[in-house]
Structure formats: C-alpha cells, structure tokens
Amino acid sequence: MYTLLFCPAPVTFPDAPPLHPSSTPCPCTVSEGAGSTTPGFRSLCTGRRVESVAMTDTLFWRPGPQPREAQVTSAALPPDESVVLVRPAEQQLQDEVARISVAAGVDLVLAETLAEAEQSRPGIVLVDRLGLRGTGGAGLFTRRGPETVCVGYASDQPWTQAAQAGADRVVVLPEGSAWLAEYLARSHGPAGRVIGVAGTFGGSGGSTLACLLAQEAASAGHTVLLADGDPAGAGLEHRLGAEYTSGLRWRDLADVRGTVNPQQLASALPGIGSFSLLAHPAGEAPPGRLGLEVLPTVLQAARGSYGLTILDLGTSPAPGSPALEQCDAVLAVAAGQPGRLLSARSWYASLGDRIPPVWAVVRGPMAEGLDEVRVAALLDLPLAGYLPWARSLNSAQDDGQLLRVRRRRLRRALAGILAALDPLTAP
C-alpha cells in the first residue's frame, strides 16, 4: 500500500513561480507501509515535515486483483466527463498513465494537442510539460472545465512548465500514482450539478429563491446543498434561522489545501430540514482568499456528495467571478418593471459570451402591459418560471422562518422552475 500525503505549506520550486497551493499537490515522497497520519514524510518541495491537513485527503491506491486491459481510443466523440491524454513525448510516460487509468477504472481518450483535447469537451486533460509549451499563464481553459493535470517524472521538473502555463494540478510519477488513480476514479464518478441564483437588482429576492428552491428540490428527492456565494450579503443563516446550528461555515474552510473529501464535507455541514447548508456568518468579513482558491475546491467536492448544489450568487455577480464560473446554469431573478428590467439587461450584457446558460425567473408585481413571457423575451433569456411574491416572505425571512412558508401556489411555481432546468436537475 502506498500513502501520499499533501504538503500544508505553499508549494515552491527552484526557478519556477509558486504553484497554486489549494489545487496543486506537492510531489511529496512516498513511503510503503501503514501510518497515514504519521509525521516524518519529507516533502521535496519545501523540506518540511508533512502532516495530515484537516478536510483534505490522505489517499490510498489498491490496484484490483484483475486489472482490465488499458483502453486508449481516439478523441472523436468522447463523453463530457471523459479523461483525455495529450500524447506525451515519451512512450514510457503514456504507458504509465494508461496503467494508472486502468487501476482507476477510467478509459483514456488520446489527443495529439491541447486544442484537439479541448474540442472533445473532456472533464480532465492530462498533459506532459512539452504539451504545455506555448500556452499562456492565465489558465489553459475558461470557466470551470476541463481540469488540466500536468504529469511527468521528477527529472523533467514538470512543475516549472505547469506553473508557467497555469495548469490546475501537477503530478510527479511514479510517486504520485496513488493520488492520480484516486483523483481519476473520483472525478469519473457521478457528478452533481451547481445551479446559481443571481438577483438582478437590490432586493430582487435571489437569496429567498435559492432557499426555497433548495427546500423544494430536497422534497422532490434530490440530495441538496444550499451554498452562500455572496459574502457581502445578509447571509443565508439569518433567513433560515440557522445561526446557532452546529457545523462548518465557509470561514472554517479558509485554510483548506488539496482535494476535499466529498463524504467528509457532507458529514461536517449543518443540516437544515432535508438539505445541507454552507453559509457565511452574517456580519462577519469573509476570509480574503476564499473566492479564488477555496470556493472552487469545495464546490468540486460538493459535486461528489450532492446531486444538486444551489449557489446564491448575490446581486449582479461580476463577469468572471469565481462563484459564477462554477455554475452549470444560472437563474436570474428579474422583475416586470421598467427600471429593474433595464438593470437586468445591463447586467446580462456585461457577462459576455463565456458564461453558463442563464434562465430568467420573473417575479411580481408587473407593470402594465408586461407579463413573465414578455419580460423574458425583452431580456432575450429563456423563461424558467414566474415567482409569485407575497409580503409574508419578507416577514418570514426577517424572523428566520422562511422555510415555513409553504403556500401551494408558491410550491407549484418552484416545481415548475426546477422542471425547466431538467435534465440538469433530474434526481
């Protein structure tokens, strides 16, 4: 059995800029035998002693007794969650990655270049250092996919090119074989969806809709996480009366490094009714590095534990915001009033082209001559549904009793909104 530990210190290498500490495991030495939490393993990156880090994984790789033959196919039409290997310069490296994929139960798709790999819409791209040459330094792909993992041998120093190219992760082989096998196996499993909810003007009710949708989706049989992606907002805890419920908050995850275990995350979060909650405590300043470094890692783990994550994006999230980039789809809450309609159009136009699909949820009251269909058409957005607004919602969330509002008309509207997103939200 091989044990691979993650280094809790920022990862730096000679003659290379520092690698992303929250998404890049260091090429720590690997030792045979038990003792996954025993200190004393020496990290090649800093020379410090390595110990376990809370909420990150110590990963084990146990090859099955009857491994099947490696399958490497062309990159014609692989599934969206496929793993693509950009053909490395060394045949030995290709064989090593293929062997690891067999142990992980994953079929590799072979591409000749990064451009060809991107066209096949994979979930993960594996590439050696030579395949990264000529790629810029601001990230290889836009939005949240695919994940780019640079693989190579220590003698080739793959971390140097990986850092310069903006790769998401780097793995040194064969030392990192255990980590890569576990990572591929987990990433290849069923993945949940992240649906963002954005208000298009102050007081639009985006956070209220996020809470109500989480409850309705859980009632319909989904495993649901309601996550607060708006640290500047009033906080979801206040609306749900969950300020004193035990469990992790975003601030407790601020120092997470490496890969978060989905099962550990789910078991540590507070439960509100039939769904889980990950919130910012109201009135507290959020940790500075949370958005860029921690949020993507935690939401990736949430995909492994929850079929549906409802992410409250706040009001008019900025183009390229880390929370927005994690979404598979976004519900934009708009109103049928001229000024607020213009506000929604301005926000949507500012997002540009590289965004997830956006649907309109139209709330009342409506100005004369407008209805939900007309409002969605003016925004040039598909209509997810109309949300009837009741004064009781405002008082209920002020008292922390939002989930007690169970009007039949409101529940029908929420069910219709979820149905409009199908198959994204199919249980």
**Class of the largest domain in CATH?**
Alpha Beta
Q: Averaging pLDDT over every residue, what do you get?
A: 76
Q: How would a crystallographer describe the biggest sheet?
A: 8 strands, mixed
Q: CATH topology of the largest domain, anyone?
A: Rossmann fold
Oligomer: single chain
Strand percentage lies at 15-25%
Rg of Cα set: 23 Å
Helix content: 25-40%
Number of domains: 2
Major sheet: order of its strands? 14-15-13-16-12-17-18-19
Poorly predicted runs: 1-79
The CATH homologous superfamily of the largest domain is called: P-loop containing nucleotide triphosphate hydrolases
Class from secondary-structure proportions: alpha/beta
